[in-house]
Design brief:
This protein has 200 residues and is mostly helical. It is 60% helix and 3% strand. The chain has nine helices and two strands. The longest helix has 17 residues. The protein is globular.
Length: 200
């Protein structure tokens, strides 16, 4: 069994999803409540759009109801196999419950679709880089995160992920460079500070 996790909004570290405080930087983890998100019943699915299903999935993911969110994204993909946002959100949700191989597959399909939204493309590359890093496919993960950073050059989350990938690869100077760039943008970024401590 795999414990679902969440990311600390302050330092980006992975934590078990039931944690209320980050054990690394001490930030409070906001609990989003237990109110049920609007759900589509089987007799409503004929009239609901793929975008509406994606929005329902997103609301469910905010409540950390990952299996329900994944179900919505699957329905959205069945409705509209070209809905790139559904593939991106599916990959994110699968990463949250450590189903990295499946996340890689969905994100790869999402990246094969045409898009006019560079932010979606960058996010797909970021999520696939995360999945591939967790699968220890570090060279492929590095290629993906470089693509994400090319699209959005000053993305703190992507720069921090690249620093971690470089650390996993043992490329210390590159890991340090990215961590310092993160701190230039966000001077109190706890994850980058801790990463630099590891490199000291």
């Amino acid at each position: 069994a795999v414990t679902p996790f969440q990311e600390c909004p302050q330092c980006g570290e992975r934590l078990p999803e039931h944690f209320k405080w980050c054990g690394y930087c001490g930030a409070k983890i906001d609990t989003l409540g237990t109110t049920d998100a609007t759900s589509a019943s089987s007799n409503q699915l004929g009239s609901i759009t793929a975008d509406q299903l994606v929005e329902e999935g997103y609301a469910l993911s905010q409540l950390r109801r990952w299996d329900d969110a994944i179900s919505r994204y699957q329905q959205a993909i069945e409705h509209d196999p070209d809905n790139q946002k559904a593939f991106r959100n599916m990959g994110f949700a699968l990463n949250q419950i450590c189903r990295f191989e499946s996340a890689d597959d969905f994100l790869t399909t999402g990246l094969s679709l045409r898009t006019d939204e560079p932010t979606h493309q960058a996010s797909l590359f970021h999520e696939r880089a995360f999945a591939r890093a967790e699968l220890k496919k570090y060279a492929e993960a590095l290629d993906d995160i470089n693509e994400a950073i090319t699209i959005i050059p000053h993305s703190v989350k992507s720069l921090y992920l690249r620093a971690r990938i470089q650390l996993y690869r043992g490329v210390i100077n590159e890991a340090k460079r990215d961590a310092l760039e993160v701190l230039r943008i966000v001077p109190d970024h706890t994850g980058a500070l801790r990463l630099l401590d590891q490199l000291a």
